[in-house]
Design goal:
Elements (H helix, E strand, L loop, with lengths): L1 H40 L15 H11 L10 H18 L8 E4 L2 E4 L8 H11 L1 H10 L3 H24 L1 H7 L4 H6 L11 H14 L11 H4 L9 H26 L10 H20 L7 H28 L1
Helix pairs in contact: 1-11, 1-12, 2-11, 3-4, 3-5, 3-11, 5-6, 6-9, 6-13, 7-13, 9-11, 9-13, 11-12
Length: 329
């Protein structure tokens, strides 16, 4: 028993370290990819000075952020101001522990599932962690003792809480089809066909709500640079600003991975290994997010809230009713 426990702990630590390393590396290079792609869309060069093809630009930016002075405004709640940036990054990274990256492999006579933690309520844990991420925006804006930051935080929290509701409702038909709240079971239920073929409306709602949760154009109302001087993180600098920045790009990867798990069949696919299929499916969503940033304008706040409550919410509820009726019939 003691040997099995120790071996399981070692495997868990190794899997966690590998996932953490891969996610952080992909998030970092997603920044470079976005800058390059936006440059091409806007008929200009992206980063191209630091290293071949600008590949070392990430290292230069990292050194710059490390060396920048970490300021705390006068009158700020220092404790909350310091911990707020880490909440979003921590909760987003934690969700990756629930995502199955492949089937099972056999090492030294032991079966090792390619998922850090499989649980029967995996989707509920994901929704709970995404709700906790709202506190990062709220505390960052409030603790800064800056009225512009506070306004940005209020708008951001209202947006994120509102869009969480249709996002959650869009997943109800997926539970109904899979008969489980486990992400592993949901992926296994898509061996024959991906759920996007029978639930395109749910996939569209989930993608749009994920876009709003990530605070990306056309839903980047919490920042609104021309109105709020960068919004809820106006007073942040150095590595604490980098945590907010990194959290956004990790969120983009997480949205891609969840779209793959819920609607695109997860790691299932012919010829290639499971983790490669999951990576390819995940990469589709960040590309679309960059594309929308280079294409669409920012919505007005009233348009954003109107779209959530009067379009997405009724559409998600109607989709649930139709799905239940078809399954019952």
């Amino acid at each position: 028993m003691g040997t099995d426990f120790l071996l399981g702990l070692i495997v868990l630590i190794i899997k966690s370290a590998v996932v953490l390393l891969v996610v952080l590396t992909l998030a970092a290079y997603l920044v470079l990819f976005e800058r390059k792609l936006l440059g091409r869309m806007q008929l200009r060069y992206g980063p191209n000075r630091v290293g071949p093809y600008g590949l070392f630009q990430l290292a230069a930016d990292g050194v710059k952020l490390l060396l920048k002075e970490d300021l705390v405004p006068d009158g700020a709640d220092k404790l909350l101001f310091l911990i707020a940036p880490g909440i979003l990054t921590f909760t987003t990274l934690t969700v990756f522990a629930l995502i199955p990256f492949g089937g099972e492999i056999h090492l030294f006579g032991h079966t090792v599932p390619l998922v850090i933690g499989d649980t029967d309520i995996g989707v509920l844990i994901f929704l709970a962690l995404s709700s906790i991420g709202v506190y990062s925006v709220a505390l960052g804006g409030w603790a800064s003792n800056n009225k512009f930051s506070l306004i940005g935080a209020v708008r951001g929290v209202a947006q994120m809480i509102s869009y969480e509701l249709p996002l959650s409702l869009s997943l109800v038909p997926i539970f109904m089809l899979a008969g489980s709240l486990s992400l592993v079971d949901i992926v296994d239920a898509q061996k024959g066909y991906p759920f996007i073929l029978v639930q395109p409306v749910a996939a569209l709602i989930f993608f749009i709500c994920g876009l709003a949760e990530s605070k990306r154009i056309p839903f980047d109302i919490p920042e609104g640079e021309n109105e709020l001087q960068a919004g809820f993180h106006t007073e942040y600098s150095g590595m604490r600003f980098a945590l907010f920045f990194l959290g956004e790009y990790i969120n983009m990867l997480l949205l891609g991975a969840l779209m793959a798990v819920f609607f695109l069949g997860g790691w299932h696919g012919p010829w290639l290994p499971g983790p490669v299929w999951l990576l390819l499916k995940t990469a589709i969503i960040p590309f679309l997010l960059v594309w929308t940033r280079g294409t669409l304008p920012r919505l007005r706040y009233d348009q954003l809230m109107h779209f959530c409550w009067k379009v997405l919410m009724p559409l998600a509820l109607v989709n649930i009713i139709i799905t239940g009726a078809v399954m019952a019939a």
